[in-house]
Amino acid sequence: MSDSCFSLDGASIAFAAGQTILQAAMDAGHYIPHLCFHPELKPHGSCKVCSVRVDGNMMASCTTPARQGMKVESATTEVDDQRRAVVQMLFVEGNHFCPSCEQSGRCKLQATAYELQMTSPHFDHFFPDRAVDASHPDFLLDFNRCILCSLCVRASRDVDQKAVFGLAGRGIGTRLIVNSESGRLGDSDFAATDKAAQVCPVGAILRKRQGFNVPIGQRTYDVAPIRESDRGGPEKR
Ligand code: SF4
Ligand code: FES
Question: DSSP assignment, residue 99?
Answer without folding.
Answer: G
